[in-house]
Request: fold
Amino acid sequence: MPTNLQAGESDAVGQRRWVWPGFALPGVVWLLLLFLVPFYAIFAVAMGRTDPIFNRAVPEWNPIYWDVSAFTGVVEDLFSGQLGTIALRTIGYVAVASFLCLLIGYPVAYFVSRRSGKWRGLWLLAILTPFWINYLMRMMAWINLLSPGAQVDQTFFLFGLDPPSWLAGQHFVVILGLVYGYIPFLILPLFGALDRIDEATLEASKDLGASPARTFWRVTLPLSKQGILAGLVIIMLPMFGDYYTPNLLSGSPRTVMMGNSIDQYINQTTSQGGTGAALTIVLMMFVAALMAYYLVTINRATKEARE
Amino acid sequence: MSSPGKGKANPWAGSRLLALTTSAYILWSLIPVAIAITFSFNDGRSRSAWQGFSTRWYVGTREAAESVLFDPSLRSALNQSIKLAILTMLVATPIGVALAIGLARWRGRLAKASNFLMLFPLVTPELVMGVALFLVFANLYDFVSFGTLAQFLGHVTFSISFVVIIVRGRLFAIGRDYEEAAMDLGATPFEAMRRVLLPLLSPAILASFAIVFALSIDDFVISQFLSGGASSITIPVRLYAGARLAPPPSLNALATVLMLITILAIVLAGLAFRAWKKRSGGDESTIESLASFEM
Reply:
């Protein structure tokens, strides 16, 4: 009898050892085939050749035969050519837009998380609403308003002013579009971080004689640092990969971002796949640090939840 | 002396300025969209001059073929978006739930690597993922044609990780006690899973269905990179293509329909989430729950 029980138990243990990998298997296989392999395809195409007869990119799957000339060409262009200007513009747009998002988003997140009183639910609903409206719809709403002769122009006419053509290559319009589009994604993690700060900590600071301003700079702000960083990373990653915002709000070569070049090489030509793939690698080099930081943050949050 | 005194005399001064800033932000974030929605009900072609109320851009007549219901290109975008979202939801959710359970319990080096692989799509810019999938379908998996199939495969790929994150939170909260109790009482691991774990997970699973539906129907980049011709154009792709070409208000109507569908999905997810919070003794409101899983 005892031996029977033992045999049964070890059977169950043996079975259970394979149960969990078995559950994970479909998802892991899916991600290997449709995430990891495609990711590798970017490198295979960037380091591949261009077929001279059909004039299309041919990938090279074996790294031994990789031809880095297309990639080095792109890197050269980055340091001394057109691409350098585009890369600097991209970094400039993202930096200014992220800064503006933080400048506007912090007071909003602070108010809703700590000062909104009994209407808190309603305020929270208001800052969540943009999440449920499609990004393209939100851009289209601004196109409606900024079109020649539309509401914004009419307001200018009312004051006898001559409006500029908003939707034709204005840097600030693209930057404001980015701010408008991505700011909700910064406000929410900030809200979370500020919401978690214990009121007692702030009371303690006050009781020890710190002015409200000093309490903010020395206690609240440092305690919300994680939320600020998370929020900035969350908005900067998609901003670096954005091509639709400048296309919709300007469409001019003056406001081209790196994403626009990639979109152009991949979506609109067949022969330049290699250049498009090489540009994508350059873009990933730009955002690698952001991706790594975000990865570590999510992983840490998971570990904390597990304990 | 004077500055702390001031703070004490009028503790609401800061709050009032903050309330004003927040109100201004909310108005700025919502008014342009509200105007766009308003003009979807305009009884004329203009999107800036009000010509009376009408639902012609939504339901119009079959002969005019200018409404979301009867304009072939708008109708087809609506159909394509809903079709993709339902397919994605039905496939990504079960795969993601199984992956979440597997990853939460499977130990070892391979488990760590799999966990890492699962996190990667979350931090990869969508443009990079779009390029990657485009190139692999064009060059390696050339039996997958661009269009619905490619879009479906892409949508499932970015959705799986979201399901894992949602379900895993719930899994950690449940712990393993209930399952082990069931097995001590003689249940096999599979029985324990089916009769104990899955019912406990059901709110998270329902929330996942709704979130994946919303993610898919709102997606633009992957849908655009993997589309193949007019029949696979989704609502966001249609908005992108038409927004700068002085479109009639029917495009606003299409966008409004998309918004209503998304809100419906999110509200359902919120209700599922609230059911679970209630059962586990939390006292958060539905809105707080919504906020917690949008993060």
